[in-house]
Structures are given as structure tokens and as C-alpha cells.
Amino acid sequence: MKKIAVFVALFFVGVTACKRKELTQKEPSSGKINAISVIIDDQLWNGQVGDSIRNTFAAPVLGLPQEEPLFDINQYPVKLLEGFATTTRNILVVKKEKQTTFEQVENEYVSPQNVFHISGNTAYAILAMIRKHAPDIIQKMQQTEIVENQRIVDTSRISTAAIKRKFGVDIHLPTGYNLVMKSKKFLWYKKEITSGNNSLLVYQVPFHRVKTTNIIKSITKIRDSVGRLFVHGSYPNTCMITEKSYTPYLFKTKIRSKETFATKGTWELQNDHMTGPFINYCIVDYPNNRMLILEGFCYAPSTPKRDLMFELESIIKSIEFLKNPKRKRQK
Description:
Elements: H1 2-24, E1 35-39, H2 42-45, H3 48-57, E2 72-76, E3 90-96, E4 101-106, E5 114-120, H4 123-154, H5 161-167, E6 169-170, E7 177-183, E8 186-193, E9 196-205, H6 215-230, E10 240-242, E11 249-255, E12 258-269, E13 275-285, E14 290-299, H7 306-316, E15 320-321
Parallel strand pairs: 1-2, 1-3, 3-5
Antiparallel strand pairs: 4-5, 6-15, 7-8, 8-9, 9-14, 10-12, 11-12, 12-13, 13-14
Helix pairs in contact: 3-4, 4-7
């Protein structure tokens, strides 16, 4: 009897553990980077609500030379909610119901996952909810995609010993990037792709080089001077500068709790016809009395550039400031 009692007890412990595992562990989410599933019936999708969703979540990405959508949208009718659409990382569920509500649920079906539920008793009520919550939805989705892209990068990374030595930071760089140029305060990593290349620059300047009274002008001047020194074309007297026809977009943000100025725009090769997008993060690093700058840019003519630049942004945001950096003294 004692043996039977012990067996029964162990059985229930095992069942409880299995149930707990089912509740706490979920299958991994799937899908391409920067894609969202919109669960909405055709009647709403083909009207003003659908137009609002497309105009908001497929709006052009800032800083690219050609228009490319913020997210790729895949629409499914509500009856498919329990099907394959639930495995994607970002889901927007829009329904016409009696109550006007908004709810955000993390990891509802898989992990990681964001599911946003919007409902309203009229199309106008739904439109109002979309306008109200769209900025937060987009921000959350982009954060999730950055983390997912960093997870992919971490599956195959290269050594960044040179970055650690020179700048006292670490950056997660995926396989394919190679160090093509280095100087006392400058490193250039490049990855060749079928249609061109992706590049990451790491450099630093003293505080006084960045004038807070005109951040855009200061950052443009700095990146143009770096381009003239290090980033040249195949022909004589060609170098990378900020495209003069358009002023870059400026955003204030934080990276690792440090004040950061982010600029997005397009570069051009002076005295040549090459051009492409860039993203520049100028990090205010008070402990080291410097402005640490990480810049990504790509050259990929006739090829979509959104995901190429997104990869560079996720790499930049992976930066880690080392506690006891063993780096060369910068004069």
C-alpha cells in the first residue's frame, strides 16, 4: 500500500509539473522581421478602417532614399485567429463589437509576441482607438523586432576585440562583417551583400565638437569630416558626405541610459553618383569625456534598404559599456 501511495503521489507531482511547464513555456514565435499580421474581416479592411491601418503601419520609413513601408502587413479574416496567424510576433486584432476597447497582451499564443486587440461599435470608434494607440503600438513592435534581430545576430557573432580595446565598449556583430579600416579613433566594419554592402563605423570626438545649439549642423560636420578622411570611392577626389539636398531627421533618445542624438538621412559620394541611407547615433559619454559615435550606412542600388538599415540599428543598440575597459589611451 505504501508503494502504491508513493506511486500515486509521484504521478500527481509529475502531472502538476507538466501542466506548470505547459503554462510557463510557449513555442517560439515566427515570421519575417518587420512584418505584422492584421486580423480583421474584409468589410472593415476594405473601408476606412483598413485605409487607416495601412496609412499608419505601412507609412514610409524616414531617412530612406525610396519609399518603403514601416511594416509589411498580412491581413487575415477573424475566423483564422486560431490558425497559423497566431504564431507571428506582432498581431493586430480589429473587431466590430458592442464595447469600444483596447488591450495589449504579451505572449498570448507564442513567445515573444505582441497581440493588440482593438474593438468598437462603429468604424469611427475603431478609427479613434487606432489613432490614439498607434504610436505606442508601433514603438512596442519595433522594440520587439530589434530584440529579435539581436537574437539572430547572437547565433553567429564575430570577435570585436578591436572595439573593446579602442573604445571600452562591446557591440554584437554578426558573421559577415569584416574590419576593413582602422585608425587611432576610428574603426570601419563592412559586410558584402549581393547588391552592395552594409557598413558600421565606430569613432569618438571630444565634447566640444558637438554644439547643442545646432545638433544637426554639428553632427553633419563631424560625419562629413570623417567621410573625407576615411570613406572614399574608387576614383580620385571622391568621399562620403551628407546629401546636401535633404536635412537629416533628428531624434533624441537614450542608449544604455545615456543621452543620445540619432540622425537618419542619406549620404552621397562627392564627385560621384553613389548614394544611400545612413543612421548615426551620437552617444553622450560623460564618464569618458567624449561623444561616442556609431554609424551605419549601406550601398545597395535597386534593392530595398529597410531591413539592411534595421540590421545596422539593432547592431548599434546592442552596445555594452564595459565596466573596466582595457583600452588604449586616446590622446
